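Example A, followed by Example B.
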Amino acid sequence: MTAHHHDHSHGSHSHGAHAHGMGNEKRVMFAMWLTGGFMVLEAVGGIVSGSLALLADAGHMLTDTGALMLAFVATRLASRPADDARSYGYARAEVLAAFANGIVMIGVVLWIMVEAVGRIMEPAAVMGTPMLVIAVAGLIVNIVAFKLLHGGENNLNMRGAALHVMGDMLGSVAAITAAGIIIATGMTIADPILSVLVALLILKSAVGITKESAHILMEGTPDGVDGETISEDLMVNVPGVCNVHHVHAWSLGSNRAVATLHAQLKPEADANSTLGAIKERLAEKFGIGHATVQIEEEACPDEGAHRHG
């Protein structure tokens, strides 16, 4: 139990991570039911009206529902306390969810592209009016879902879920535009062309999220937190520290950085208070809430000796 308490006590985590988690959970769940329910309607509409843009949007909404389901499970897991098997807790669950999400989205994009090329070569009949009605309804559903998710706590998982829904909103706008063009001019080629635009929008966000989550899963260094920067910063800002080396920093979740390092102290420095000062500096300057600091037995040589040597 102590490990868990200790995990939340320092850094920016002290303000009730659990209260946030509950809020996020409910938001994600409502958005998930909304999106899932409407997706079925949109897929049927796409088949009936013959619109690829609607089907693309429904496909996008399907990955969204999956995304929101993953986000929901991840939010629940991430708020679970650390246990013997997972000494750092379950924060990585949300990163795994975001990664899986990104990969699935890339697959959907490829399917839409292949389908659209076929349609551009050989335009199919599309019924404009039912397409327009469904696309407008879809836009309204997406706006509600986006508002729900956007009010939540900001982490990679919630951002991933909100991004999906934002892509959906753009998808609905594209479908509305295509339907308008078809009603006004009868040019059904507008449908596959706009579905390609939707696909490209999905692709951009999917690649971004996949890269960001893969970086965390590969124990990549958090943004702006590299060993050199940390060593120099500590030597300048923490009195008593004369050398910092073996610095490793990585991320547990989208906003939880961890570090380990070795520090050498000046002969007159008090090890305990300097250790406290190092941890405080890491939390304030770099957002590192959990640091393991090894104080070297051997003190630094005093300045005079250092000059001769």
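Example B, a separate protein, is given below in the same form.
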Amino acid sequence: MAYNAPETKPASQDSQQGEMKDQVIYVGRVTKVVKGGKNFSFSALVVVGDGNGKVGFGLGKALEVPSAIKKGIESAKRNMISVPVSPNRSLPHPITGRFGSGSVLMKPAPEGTGIIAGAAVRAIMEAAGINNVLTKSLGSSNPHNVVRATFEGFKNLMDPYTVLTNRGLDQAEA
């Protein structure tokens, strides 16, 4: 019986892995009825973020829950976006994200407010590093639609510094 040494990861991958926070939002069981009985499979909706403005979501499907979660995390890391975060760890301006029949209203909040949100939006805000925000989910309560609506809102957010430069102003004038 031979001893197998544990695999070692390069330092850069290990430190990057330590920074990323992942959170499972939803695990669904799917049943397919076939001639011989029922086949079960699982889908997992996962959010991954670095806590500093980069966040992504992914959907993984597999025959077992841990495999589905792992696939979801890999998908989320491939689909990360950058979110502008104001100095008080809030959003720069109010925004409404819409996807399908779901929409999510997101408003900046003063320091100390915390995250006022439902479960799916809360997980996204925590992963993105946004600590002070008011949100309201309108329409569909399906976690998939809520997550996608939140990300549509994030994509439409404007960074305050970019707006100033587009208007031809510098920070001192504003």
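On Example B: The radius of gyration is 20 Å.
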